[in-house]
Design goal:
Strand order of the largest sheet: 8-7-6-5-9
InterPro entries: DUF3391, HD/PDEase_dom, HD_GYP_dom
Radius of gyration: 21 Å
Helix content: 40-55%
Organism: Massilia violaceinigra
Distance between the termini: 48 Å
Protein name: HD-GYP domain-containing protein
Pfam families: DUF3391 (PF11871), HD_5 (PF13487)
Oligomer: single chain
Number of helices: 15
Strand content: 5-15%
Length: about 400
């Protein structure tokens, strides 16, 4: 039986099933192992991990601890409540924005690559070349956030570092917009998102792209990148305080377990806290050569759970509203057995988006694509519901092929 317990309850002889944190947080080579020493317990606590999942069939039990299923049910109930608050309506259709978004994705990725190369050579970042790209991304988000955000969900592993920066910029701009922030603040946050990982230009490639878990020494090198990025940005005299703050503090956590300054609640700025959520969300949903990305829906569940200690709970919930429980581009299995791809969130219920269906799994055949509005009843273009997100790799499908009908 799997149970979720507080880290303070850990004892040697327990079997860790899940450390319940993002993969870049914990200092262990693996996620599942038998606790054999007090030193291992100290490492878990010192890493800022507050609760873990134990397997009682493989190690010691904890009486009266909730089962993993019980805690998941509690999270599910909270998410359903979050999913029924209104969202911002888009200005253009997804189909209209997709072509523009494709160009922006390509250009922005190339720009970040150039920024990283310049930083590695010791050059100052030319903000005159970066600013127009942030403006293009912002304008795309204003027209239809689902287009660019959906496209950025699929990343080439070789270009991950660059695409991640574009994704963080895009998501942070959308997050600021959904929270009603003014245009200048949104732009500065977007600039910070695009440049937040500039310090990784100084991380050796064999560490940055290592096809496996990092050693303690390698993790210490990685943890230098916020400060290195901050120092690089300081070479550009026109850089503002918001991009500097986001770059230096996007790995800080409310419980003081983050880095580089171990800032706690009250010390971390609003935008740095927002950037932290965005950064983790994009990282844990991406496929890496050593880390299988989780679905957007599962990632949001994790962020909700981690918000008890690491993230601002209100910001975490508002981010869920911003991206949607099933973001645009998510492939889903419907109760009818049809596969579809989410194309538009519902205004008041994120569990009932519009979906383009294209495959019947019961008959194992492709069907003529059609749009199903899951908020509508049978006979009115609806009458179905999402059972679970699906992996495009499992079905060998590019969901973006079916993002528009006709």
């Amino acid at each position: 039986m799997l149970k979720k317990i507080d880290a303070s309850q850990l004892k040697t002889g327990m079997y860790i099933h899940d450390l319940s944190c993002d993969w870049m947080t914990h200092p262990f080579v693996r996620n599942r192992f038998l606790l054999t020493s007090e030193e291992e317990i100290r490492k878990i606590v010192n890493a800022g991990i507050h609760d873990v999942v134990i397997d009682c069939s493989k190690g010691l039990d904890v009486d009266h601890a909730p089962t993993l299923e019980e805690t998941r049910q509690h999270t599910e109930e909270a998410l359903v409540e979050i999913a029924t608050r209104p969202v911002i309506v888009t200005r253009t259709t997804l189909a209209e924005e997709l072509k523009r978004a494709a160009v922006i994705r390509q250009q922005a990725t190339g720009l970040v690559r150039t920024v990283m190369q310049d930083a590695r050579l010791g050059k100052a970042i030319e903000l005159d070349s970066v600013s127009p790209m942030v403006e293009n991304i912002t304008e795309s988000i204003l027209r239809n956030p689902g287009a660019l955000m959906g496209m950025l969900r699929i990343k080439n592993k070789d270009d991950y570092t660059f695409l991640h920066s574009v994704s963080v910029c895009t998501l942070l701009v959308a997050f600021c917009r959904s929270r009603g922030m003014d245009a200048e603040t949104t732009y500065q946050a977007g600039l910070g998102g695009l440049l937040h990982d500039t310090g990784k230009a100084l991380v050796p490639d064999h560490v940055l792209n290592k096809p496996g878990p990092l050693t303690d020494e390698e993790f210490a090198i990685i943890k230098k990148h916020p400060r290195d990025g901050y120092d690089i940005l300081l070479k550009s005299p026109e850089i503002g305080p918001i991009p500097l703050d986001i770059t230096l503090h996007h790995h800080e956590r409310r419980d003081g377990s983050g880095y580089p300054e171990k800032q706690g609640e009250g010390a971390i700025s609003e935008l740095a806290q927002m950037a932290a959520i965005v950064d983790v969300y994009d990282a844990i949903t991406a496929d890496r050569c050593y880390h299988k990305g989780m679905s957007a829906a599962e990632a949001l569940r994790k962020i909700y759970e981690w918000s008890k200690f690491h993230f601002h709970p209100t910001y975490a919930q508002e981010f869920m509203r911003c991206v949607g429980i099933y973001p645009v581009g998510t492939m889903v299995m419907l109760e009818s057995g049809r596969l579809g791809v989410v194309i538009e969130p519902h205004e008041t219920n994120l569990l009932a988006p519009k979906v383009n269906v294209f495959f019947n799994t019961k008959r194992n055949v492709y069907i003529r694509p059609e749009t199903v509005d899951l908020s509508r009843p049978v006979g009115f273009g609806g009458g179905d519901k999402i059972v679970r997100p699906e992996s495009p790799q499992k079905w060998n499908v590019d969901p973006m092929q079916f993002i528009s009908v006709g």
